[in-house]
Amino acid sequence: MLTLRAQTRKLLGRKTKQLRKEDLIPAVIYGHNIKTKPIQVDLKTFSKVFKEAGESSLVNLEIDKEKPTSVLIHDLSYHPLTSKIIHIDFYQVKAHEKLTTDVELKFIGESPAVKNLGGILVTHLKRVKIECLPQDLIHEIEVDFSQLTSYGDEIKIKDLKVPERIRILEDGELIVVNIEEPAKEEEVVKEEVAAPEAEAGVATAEKPEVLVGKPEKAEKKVFEKKVEK
Question: 0.70 exceeded by the pTM?
Fold first, then answer.
């Protein structure tokens, strides 16, 4: 398990801007039956740990000189312009309590339907929510494309293989990935022909109305009315 060192944070609120200037990230640690505690971590050190652990691996968080505690990197906040991490939430877990987290889907293999038939592979999900005890937590779930051999083939949530002690909380009928048949040449040609017609229709509709009658007559009527007055 990876270890990340942190320090108790004294600067709160708007004062945390000073921490970021020093490449320190303000953070908090919380969990069941524990008081939320403000802490700070080094940006470079955290980035290395996060790259390997992600949000679905336990990390040993060592605050000051206290005994390390098992946490999940539960939530990250980013600056809207620079995309730099500006805040972290750590969730402290307990060995006997189940936790809920999102796990990445790792796509492996090659689909025969794509390779041999020219099928179109459509991915619907990239991660799923699971429930398990901390010691049973996995970093990713593999999805094997080699199972997809024909048009219409699909892999659903219920088809994913996970250890017995892990429960996927998503609807079992949700489609993770499927194969669609490519459009036929005739359909493509029809679409290309229909496009110009549609454009022509729009252009015609946008033309201004043409008034019937000669302008000079209209001007004469206006003049005659003025004379009558």
Answer: no
